[in-house]
Every structure is written in C-alpha cells, then in structure tokens.
Amino acid sequence: MKIKHPILKQIYTYVLIFIGTIIAAASIEVLLIPNGLMDGGVVGISIMVSHLLGIPLGILTFALNIPFLIIGYKQIGKSFLVQSVFAIASFSVWVEVLKLLHLHPIENDPILAAIFGGVVLGAGIGIIIRYGASLDGTEMMAIIISRVTQVSVGQCVLLFNVVIFTVAGFVFGPSEAMYSLLTYFIASKVMDIVVEGLDEAKCIMIVSERYEDVASAISARLGRGVTFLDGEGSYLRRRVKVIYVVVTRIEISKLKSIIIEKDPNAFLTISNVADVLGGSHKKKSIH
User: Fold this and answer.
1) Which one has a higher pLDDT value, 192 or 65?
2) Is residue 280's pLDDT more than 50?
3) pLDDT digits over 92-144, tens only?
4) 201-207 and 227-232 as β-strands: parallel, antiparallel, unpaired?
5) Which residues does 230 contact at the CB level (< 8 Å), separation at least 6?
6) pTM of this prediction?
7) How do residues 25-84 score in pLDDT, each as one tens digit?
8) Residue 105 has what DSSP assignment?
9) Distance from C-alpha of 268 to C-alpha of 274, rounded to nearest angstrom
10) Are residues 195 and 130 in contact, defined by beta-carbon separation less than 8 angstroms?
C-alpha cells in the first residue's frame, strides 16, 4: 500500500507497528509464558527476571530496553528511536493488559506452543521491523559492538541469545530452554518472511559478449528492465558489459534458458535481494 501524504503515511506506519505489538504480546502471554517458554533478547531476559523476582513483565521490558536505546541513539537515528520507543511502550502495555484479562493458554502442549508461538511472535516482530521499529535493544548493542570489533552483528546477536537460553536452562529447565530455542528459530524465519516478503527477489549479474541479444530477450520475454554495467576482465584486460537484472525466484529457470539460448558461454551469478523498491519497468507474463 503506497501512501504519498507524509502525515497519513506516518499514521499508517504507527498503526501497523501498533498492530505488530499486539500480535507479539499475544504470542508471549497466550502461548509462550503459560507453557514455560520464552523469546530471546531483551524480552527473554525480562521474562526470566519477571519469573524470578515477580516484577511485571511490561515494566521490565520497557526499562531494560531504554539503556540500549539511549546508547544506540547516534547509531539508529531519531525516527527509528521514536518509533522503537512507541513499539516498546505499546508492547509493554499490551503484555500487562493481556495478563489482566487472564486469558487461557491456547495450547498446553509445549511443542505446539513453541511452533505456533514462534510463528505468531515472528509475524508480530516482523511487522514492527518492516515499518521501522524494534523491540530488542540487544540488536542495537550488537551494531555498536560490530563497529568497534571484528565480530559481525549476527554473531553478536547469536552470542547474546546463546547466553540467554543457557541461563534459561537453569531458570526454567533444560526442556523448556530447548523448546524456547525452537520458538526463537521459528520466529526468526517467520520474521524474515514478513520483513522481506514471500516473493523473494534474486539479483543476476551476467557477463556475455552477446549482451545486447541477452538483454533484449530478457526484456521481451520476462518483462524485466536490465542495466548495463561497465567491467574489465582481469586476465585479458578487455572491456566487457555486465548485465544487471532483478527477477523473482520462479523466473530463475526461464532466465537461465534464455541465457543459454542466446549465449551458451555467458557467465552469471545469482544473489538474494532483501527488498526491491521503485523501477518503472512493469513485469510481463513469462513466455
């Protein structure tokens, strides 16, 4: 959905973030906590501390995230900070509201709770991230650590959560910790789908002497716009044209057949693309 008016666009963004927090909170309160399960990151830490000390989960989640937001302010930008504060506050409120409603757990089987809890949680967090906010301050800290060390953001987040789930094994028991790890894995995959979309795009780089024929065929038969990049072979020092094109996953097979047909000696690489925005060339039906 494209909204051009800046105020309406901002309202739409906050409404979607708000919906995402309700979904995430419902997963925590209705599926995970009643079955002794938890998420990773700050929410996971909050669940453990709340279990041990009896402090309301909503208050803990908000309080523990604030230091990360303050530290990461210069790294994440003002708009992301404001939207993240809104998301964390909304999530914290909804966690407490759902607790007051005394809702019965949807599922008492820990395996099913882990699976469906992960799906619902991943959907909620994915919506929040897709619209420019975050519930987890540990990711912001990971960004900062990665900039001053040789450790990547992904490795930092993984290390944080390994520690969190290890501690959870002592707090809730090894079985619950392993189920929680399953929840975290499923949630991360669902989150990626929500953030990046089901129609995963692929970036194709093609080096061909018959680049004009290949590009024309791709444009005519796939309906995809192509871009020519200037390149140079390192061995012969000969100037070459590189074709750059973005297609969907289901178009890969047809694209390969077009390339083989036009230039069997062409060289191509295929890479994943997280998101695609803009472009004036409309897709046509494959033929």
Assistant:
1) 65
2) no
3) 999 999 988 877 766 678 889 999 999 999 999 889 888 888 888 777 777 67
4) unpaired
5) 239, 241, 242
6) 0.75
7) 999 998 898 888 888 888 889 999 998 998 999 999 999 988 888 876 766 667 788 888
8) P
9) 19
10) yes
User: CATH 3.30.70.120 region(s) of the chain?
Assistant: 201-273
Determine contact, residues 83/14, Cβ cutoff 8 Å. yes
Q: What is the DSSP letter of 262?
A: H
151-185 burial, b at 16+ Cβ within 10 Å, e below that, comes to eebeebbeebbeebbeebeeebeeebbbbbbbbbe
> Which class does domain 201-273 fall in?
alpha beta
Instruction: Give the pLDDT score at 285.
Output: 46
pLDDT of residue 90: 95
Distance in angstroms (rounded) separating the CA atoms of residues 2 and 31: 34
pLDDT at 181 over 50: yes
Side-chain-facing half-sphere of 116: CA atoms under 13 Å: 15
Instruction: Determine contact, residues 121/24, Cβ cutoff 8 Å.
Output: yes
How far apart (Å, rounded) are the C-alpha atoms in residues 226 and 204?
A: 10
Strands 267-273 and 227-232, sheet pairing: unpaired
Q: Which long-range contacts (CB under 8 A, 24 or more apart) does 261-266 make?
A: 261/217, 262/208, 262/210, 262/213, 262/214, 262/217, 263/208, 263/209, 263/210, 263/213, 263/214, 265/208, 265/209, 266/206, 266/207, 266/208, 266/210, 266/214
